[in-house]
Specification:
Keywords: Disulfide bond, Membrane, Oxidoreductase, Redox-active center, Signal, Transmembrane, Transmembrane helix. This protein is α+β, with helices and mostly antiparallel strands. The protein is 51% helix and 10% strand.
Amino acid sequence: MGEAKRRQHDGAPSPHKRSSKPVVYVGLVIVAVAVVAALYYLTQPPTPESASLPEVSEDTPAFPAELDRFGISVGPEDAEVVVREFADYQCPACASFAEASQKLKAEYVDPGKVRFVFFDLPLRQHQHAVKAAMAARCAGDQDQYWAMHDRLFAEQTSWETSDNPGDRFSGYADEMGLNTRRFDRCMESELHLEAIEKSQEVAIQLQVASTPTVMVDNIPLNRPGWGQLSAVVERELQED
């Protein structure tokens, strides 16, 4: 029955239907607030007291410190906490973690609180990873290991697809003020290949298969990044 006919029939206007729009808007607002709150919670860095931080049982064996000689170390030998990373220079996730390792060196290693050990673990699917690891070690012969380490990760996307990444590495060495003839000889002779292979053997011995694998003392991180790394380091420093 139409509106006019309905009025004629009972003499009263038809009741207005209640709009559902305000209810929908309120629901959307609630959902939006919940999403924002969840994102805030998920993106907040954990605190050293956070129950979400990774832990190991008391009977978990300590990391075999004698194996550190196969990695590249920086920081005092008697540091309270040791952070170890197994990484591949051609691994994108390792390049992302490099910023966290730089912060670690600046905020904890340089003040003498932490020692950092970097293990080469070039993965089979990355054809230039071994050569990049050699570039870092050849630069290390001229006391520029960490500078080349950082440069390789920062420039990863420019050399990983190169037909001849060795030329790029030589260019980095030149820009860093290294003796390029000495650097190139080191690269051509594969001077540090055995050391890199020894580092890989450590990873195999410890059943480390993915990169980056990061450990604070004997505690493997499940979300390698500055938030979790710094929180676990702080917790370990407080417990020591």
